[in-house]
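TEACHING EXERCISE
Course module: macromolecular assemblies
Task: Read the component lines below, then compare them to the predicted structure of the full complex.
Student: A.B.
Group: 4
Components provided:
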Amino acid sequence: MMIDVEQAVKRLLQQDRVCILAHASPDGDTLGSAYGLYYALRELGKQARVRCADPVPSQYAHLCREYREEDFEEGFVMAVDVAAPNLLGGLEAAYAGRVQLCLDHHPTNEGYAQESCVWPQAAATCELVYEVVRLLGAPVTPMVADCLYTGLASDSGCFKYPSTSPQTHRMAAQLMEAGADYSRINERLFDTKTKGRILVEQAVLNSIRFFAGDRVALITIPRSLLEHAQAAEGDLDGLAALPRMIEGVDIGLTLREKEEGVWKVSVRTGSRADASVLCGKFGGGGHARASGCLIRAGYDEAVRMLTEAAEHLLESLE
Amino acid sequence: MMIDVEQAVKRLLQQDRVCILAHASPDGDTLGSAYGLYYALRELGKQARVRCADPVPSQYAHLCREYREEDFEEGFVMAVDVAAPNLLGGLEAAYAGRVQLCLDHHPTNEGYAQESCVWPQAAATCELVYEVVRLLGAPVTPMVADCLYTGLASDSGCFKYPSTSPQTHRMAAQLMEAGADYSRINERLFDTKTKGRILVEQAVLNSIRFFAGDRVALITIPRSLLEHAQAAEGDLDGLAALPRMIEGVDIGLTLREKEEGVWKVSVRTGSRADASVLCGKFGGGGHARASGCLIRAGYDEAVRMLTEAAEHLLESLE
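Instructor-supplied answer key:
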């Protein structure tokens, strides 16, 4: 059942032993929401814990610095920023049917929880959690502010993405005034790269190829790259956006080798070409500006098929 | 003479034919301030023009889309975001002694104008210009909002830099509500790279070297790079920050070849090592976290001198 924020707060006020679930492969928003709510509930004298199937990545370690794991029997199970039960990862089996309340901002939220409060207009679930914390009457301590700022900044691309609203900025202002250590958090989130990431970027930039008079750009991520760069899966985040960022490029293609002769293709387009049309030719699909497909072919053949299809698409627009 | 914003507004209200000077090699803040004020003054029925020694870079072209050059005799000369007369570049000779009002946020502003209003706490001169526009009673049209948002976002690193304040965020919220096309502006400013920039990043990442157990990282920018990458000087912006961004790196070194055997060295450090101490050994200096010096030597010798000095500095901290 969908409920509004006041109802969600009413439900939470009745609970004393709360388990907060974050999604697997956790990002700043699910962790910021979970820990922010944890600290707020603790301020209200309630028992709480945070559960996540995967470890907290190092750039979010500051969220846990005042966390204390307590032994108690869970009386209430809630999920934050978790759009579907399978996103709980390794916790799905234990918790999937038991989620009583879900706070989320994904418009695709499946309503799997007993009660769900979803703000699809919010740039981050943390926007909703901030309202929950205020309505709970919990103090927004510097620790709570750090958590909510982390989620807000990370999910909005540091206020860069179109999802950013005036309300996102006003919340950032209030969290800064509440003591969020925004300067250090921003440096950690946006100006720090692992050595593995640097080596990945080096290899990817070296792989860049231009076609159709520089209107199509292509990058390649071979299977060997992660090992070569001693990089983690997370070091590949956001790479598919790179080729389309280049001035004048209408279609950006990313070929990631899944196994010998199998390529996972990501297509990003500007406002003119439709990425889902291009991917549709290869049995894939998605959105107008971001789509994907799978191609089974040798590298040269895969590149030829894709770039020819991209050129045809561009010609058809003229 | 230093004046406050109310006095600056009073002065501006008396003027009808205003020339607004931006600094040479213009950035988003000087251009956003100049054009934002231009449109606001036009709304008040005043004549105005913008002057800059250098052309408007393509990523800021949207600021000029409703600009009309009019023929009138300048009755009042003002400068925005110009901390010293020599920053006027090619306009210095014509205007240096004639600036009647300066609006700026640089704490180093020399007070060269007859009257100066400086807000050193502001993340951008556009913060001050916004207040001026409001006190002038001019409407904040979508065009004015676009200009001021552009300056605010570009000078604050899209709200990432420590200079960002709660007031910066609140102003962003208000400009978005006034119709700033923030989504397109952000994409243009922060998610668009020239092909030249991509080739520059490729070469710079390929040049990266690690020393002292990965605690020192060094990049090299040879003279040939700009030509090789068909890149502009602006395509080198911000590169010196790159080596220090890498996790675990305490000292980031950038060697830029000025002429055969002459290297302009930029040093960036984390909170531990003092960059000015390192540069001081080579006759340079600057700030604790960002300094520079000049080294005359062959490449290998320059690298040896710098990395040895960097290692000694790190050892002395242990």
